[in-house]
Recover the amino acids of this structure.
């Protein structure tokens, strides 16, 4: 009989997370990809940004710089190791405007960020949408935490752009405002 676990299948193992963190750290030192990508984001001082699926914080510290002391970044992930990594980064870099939140994330479609409704001006969801088992429920949560005119930056991760578009259309909450090679810029449908 197989082992019973309450761990969601969308969550990678601790060992896989540690390997991914090391690999991403190496990649970020060699290729300035993230800095180039973020130049296209409309994120300004004073904004509130959610880095959903923050992982080890590859975007979090840069978002912290972009929103400045008057802004806030919420680093959200379903993996405890991700939250630990970001909390270590917060201490090491004295990032006073970054908060962490361990999201529910499970196969039943509970993606609760534990953030108040209408919190975020911007949600960034990178390299994680492909693994979401219930995209409509995930996008419901993103819509809930976004302000009325908020923006979702979403990339394909390890799926084709057509699949990402199809999931967005099927969920029915967002419209695509712009597409780049790197990501989609989406707004809540009014």
């Amino acid at each position: 009989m197989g082992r019973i676990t309450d761990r969601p299948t969308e969550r990678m193992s601790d060992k896989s997370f540690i390997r991914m963190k090391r690999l991403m750290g190496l990649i970020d030192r060699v290729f300035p990809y993230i800095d180039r990508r973020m130049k296209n984001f409309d994120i300004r001082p004073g904004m509130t940004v959610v880095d959903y699926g923050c992982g080890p914080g590859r975007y979090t510290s840069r978002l912290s710089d972009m929103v400045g002391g008057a802004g806030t970044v919420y680093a959200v992930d379903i993996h405890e190791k991700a939250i630990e990594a970001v909390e270590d980064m917060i201490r090491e870099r004295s990032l006073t405007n970054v908060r962490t939140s361990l999201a529910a994330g499970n196969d039943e479609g509970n993606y609760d960020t534990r953030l108040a409704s209408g919190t975020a001006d911007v949600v960034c969801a990178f390299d994680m949408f492909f693994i979401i088992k219930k995209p409509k429920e995930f996008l419901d949560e993103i819509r809930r935490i976004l302000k009325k005119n908020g923006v979702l930056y979403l990339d394909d991760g390890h799926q084709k752009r057509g699949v990402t578009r199809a999931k967005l259309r099927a969920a029915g909450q967002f419209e695509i405002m712009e597409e780049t090679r790197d990501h989609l810029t989406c707004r809540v449908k009014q």
